[in-house]
Write a structure and sequence with these properties.
Elements: H1 16-37, E1 40-48, E2 53-62, E3 69-76, E4 81-88, E5 93-99, H2 106-121
Antiparallel strand pairs: 1-2, 2-3, 3-4, 4-5
Helix pairs in contact: 1-2
């Protein structure tokens, strides 16, 4: 029986970048697939810019539009900050919000993604109803 703990026994702390990849990336990928199924053009990009900054973005546009609406999340390890930025092509408006890292969870991400699609394209994400209780 061992009574000492070594460095190899301790798992490294999960970074914001790891959390962004594990929680938000699947939400963005699923939204991208849904957008394509609705005859929209969509792409997801995940980029570890450097050791401290990671970005995840979803760009979506109607085929006839020259400008895409964008939802981007940037994580900043040094100040434990998560930044949500939206660009809405229809009215060329933007929004930016800094949140606590705890906001990177399935329920909040689904809610934010549906709000983005509702404002940018007038679409709800019906597949979310399967995951969440009534009143979501």
């Amino acid at each position: 029986m061992r009574d000492t703990v070594t460095d190899s026994d301790i798992s490294p702390a999960q970074t914001l970048a790891d959390n962004l990849e594990m929680v938000a990336l699947p939400v963005f990928q699923e939204a991208c697939r849904y957008a394509v199924s609705q005859s929209l053009e969509a792409q997801v990009h995940f980029d570890r810019v450097d050791a401290l900054v990671t970005q995840l973005s979803l760009t979506v546009s109607r085929t006839e539009d020259h400008t895409a609406s964008t939802y981007r999340i940037t994580t900043q390890e040094h100040n434990q900050c998560v930044i949500h930025e939206h660009y809405y092509a229809p009215d060329q408006s933007t929004s930016r919000e800094e949140t606590d890292p705890s906001a990177l969870n399935d329920m909040i991400m689904d809610s934010r993604m549906e709000a983005f699609f509702s404002r940018a394209f007038g679409l709800l994400l019906p597949y979310l109803k399967e995951r969440h209780p009534p009143g979501f």
